[in-house]
Design a protein that fits this description.
Length: 320
């Protein structure tokens, strides 16, 4: 399968990475009960806004400062620079980052998302996976969304063009016909489908389901272990609300993602919000890192780590 990949210009890439880092500052190390958390604004980590709005962090005696990011790649950059204590990221960027920042640890698997779709335009002549051949698919390269698209194309032996599109630009790219389809995570996937309306065709395929991870810095693990435990206890409480799809949970996620409550109710069943950290995640991360090397987002000469040593299940007491 051949894919045309058009990289970001250096200037745009640099601005995308530096913007959030400058805003973050440095994690607060003066108070062991305070955690600075990088939150990718995505229902995959919906436990965070639910725990905030429901007071679960306060109930468990942990202070949480939340900094929003548009992608896990950006959040992990800030975590590696010790500007955060915890960052959320999907499994693909996490696997790649751990090859460069082995002091970080995966401390929780917050949810598994089974709702990945390629959202195509019917007006581009696409009504099935086979119709994607020769068309352009906009996606943020190096992310879980790009892996999903590559997996779908590979398993169905389809040749299409993967084109770099930032998450916040996917709606514009689709509606202005800059690309024929997009592969993107939530909430952007839902926003693209909503914006295209009757022109939207949602295509499933492949075998990949995204693991939505929590990673922590080495300093947070050593100096704030009690806060990390309390943080995950609060997230576990929030997960129960999400599983029940309570009105309070829907309201919190709607506010955080700026999606309508009706759309949130439609999206939430796509996720398994049981906190866990299973040993077999290491094999998944290894496979995703190998793909990243093939794509060039990880140097091909890089020796992959033993991901089993980079999982720390100390703080997640449920679902193991």
């Amino acid at each position: 399968m051949k894919k045309l990949i058009r990289p970001l210009t250096a200037a745009v890439a640099l601005l995308a990475l530096l913007g959030p880092l400058t805003a973050c500052g440095t994690a607060d190390n003066s108070d062991p009960k305070t955690l600075t958390v990088g939150f990718v604004v995505d229902p995959s980590w919906a436990q965070i806004p639910v725990a905030q709005q429901s007071g679960y962090f306060a109930n468990h005696d942990v202070k949480v400062k939340v900094v929003n990011f548009s992608t896990g790649v950006e959040a992990l950059q800030a975590l590696a620079a010790h500007q955060l204590d915890i960052a959320t990221a999907a499994d693909v960027p996490a696997a790649a980052t751990l090859t460069r920042s082995p002091a970080l640890r995966v401390v929780g698997d917050g949810s598994r998302w089974q709702g990945s779709r390629i959202v195509a335009r019917r007006s581009a002549g696409i009504t099935s996976l086979d119709n994607l051949a020769g068309h352009s698919i906009g996606t943020p390269l190096g992310t879980s969304a790009a892996f999903f698209a590559s997996d779908v194309l590979s398993q169905n032996k389809i040749s299409a063009n993967l084109v770099q599109v930032a998450p916040s630009a996917t709606v514009t790219a689709a509606t202005q016909h800059n690309v024929d389809a997009v592969s993107i995570f939530q909430p952007y996937q839902a926003q693209v489908a909503q914006a295209l309306g009757d022109d939207a065709v949602q295509l499933a395929g492949g075998s990949y389901n995204q693991h939505s991870l929590y990673l922590a810095s080495d300093t947070a693990i050593s100096a704030k272990s009690a806060a990390l435990t309390a943080f995950f206890d609060a997230l576990n409480d929030a997960g129960a609300q999400l599983t029940a799809r309570s009105d309070a949970a829907v309201s919190a996620v709607s506010t955080a993602t700026q999606l309508s409550p009706d759309l949130i109710r439609k999206i939430l069943p796509e996720f398994d919000y049981a906190l866990q950290l299973r040993p077999d995640l290491a094999d998944t991360l290894g496979a995703l890192a190998s793909w990243a090397k093939e794509q060039g987002s990880v140097d091909r000469a890089t020796a992959l780590p033993d991901y089993r040593t980079l999982l720390d299940a100390t703080f997640v007491s449920h679902g193991n």
